[in-house]
Amino acid sequence: MTVGNSEELAVTTAAHDTATAPPRPTSQPKGQPAGQRRARRRLGPGRPIRYGWAVGPLLLLALWSAGSAAGLIDARNLSAPWTVVTTAGELIAEGRLQSHLATSAQRALLGLLFGVAAGLVLALIAGLSRIGEGVIDGPVQIKRAIPSLALIPLLILWFGIGESMKVITIALGVFVPVYIHTHNGLRTIDHRYVELAETVRLSRAGFLRHVVLPGALPGFLLGMRFAVTAAWLALVVVEQVNATSGIGYMMELARTYGQTDVIMVGLVVYGLLGLVSDGLVRLVERRALSWRRTLAG
């Protein structure tokens, strides 16, 4: 074999080895094993946890049970959970708890209905009219600074001590958060949507339907979450003012006779009512605002 043929064979062999050789691994950052892909960092709260709303209440119940079982909580000051359950069962068997709960729910729903209607109407007037805002917003802010419960003496003078006073007190506590958040939702609507509505010559009704209502809905639903809580808070107090029925009346009567377990039953019922009503509003919020992509998931 000649020298020229040997050189050609060497070049051909080297080219073949280069073409068939596996690619060299790229350089890895210092401290990271080869072949390990860097995990993507997540900055949000993560995916929603199924039944995550129950974690906090169950943890609170566990601490309450553990403290009662260990003797750290005096039963005369705070009844044990199992005592509360037993007392609730007795009240249900006697029919007292259902009767008081039905009366309380009726008062709360009536006050919530009137309060939400008043807050929504006033928010629409103030949010869509500068004159309306000048007339309405100031008095509402004054009412916001005055607790509804502080108005009970005046309401008793004006409406007596019957059901009207109780429902009006609840409505006064409800309409302020509905007004505040709905009004804020209206005023934070992007002005470009208003200009677009003017460009396509939407009617007043079309403007309210396609721009105002969707824009105000997130604020309104947030106000509803505060409103349902305010309704139950006001209900606790008004049912202790010359009432003859209701959960608050049952608790006040139990306080007179030193029945801590009955008082705890009333508190647990109020807490569950608040938790369930807030959960219902949040469910409506997720369904109605499913088009939004937020950290809530």
Top-tier CATH class of the domain at 104-288: Mainly Alpha
Amino- and carboxy-terminal Cα gap: 76 Å
The CATH H-level superfamily of the domain at 104-288 is MetI-like
**Beta-strand content bin:** under 5%
Roughly how many Å is the radius of gyration? Answer: 32 Å
Low-confidence stretches: 1-16
Q: Kindly report the average pLDDT value.
A: 81
DSSP strand count: 0
Number of helices: 11
Could you tell me the CATH topology label of the domain at 104-288: MetI-like fold
Category by helix and strand content: mainly alpha
Q: Strand count, sense and closure of the main sheet? A: none
The level of helicity is over 70%
H-E order: HHHHHHHHHHH
- The global form is globular
Overall CATH architecture of the domain at 104-288: Orthogonal Bundle
